[in-house]
Amino acid sequence: MSDTTTARTPAYSITEVFEVLDPAGAQRYSELTPPTVEQYGGRFLVLGAAPTAAEGDAGIVAAVVEWPDMETLHTWYDSAEYAPARAIAATAMRRRLVFLPGITPAA
């Protein structure tokens, strides 16, 4: 590594499913999504976990993905590879999907 190398700031996507409207569609989404996440450099930190709410309401299942940076996250979300899964999610489940910037790693 050279002195001019800059650390990228990681980004995170958090999905919380509140209701499954189409179980077969949700299953298909869960099959289609992981390969696209991997293709774009994402790494699941949490996958299919049942959240426990310390405050407020929790969904029935959650996932957290770490991405190299926010640009990569947005590129994945808008990609042709993720589009079929994204279309399924729109009708198969009621969910919240949020994108968060991480903290720049210390040099």
Automatic annotation (TrEMBL):
Sequence ranges assigned to domain DUF1330 in this UniProt record: 10-102
Source organism, top-level taxon: Bacteria
Family matches, as Pfam families: DUF1330
Protein name from the UniProt record: DUF1330 domain-containing protein
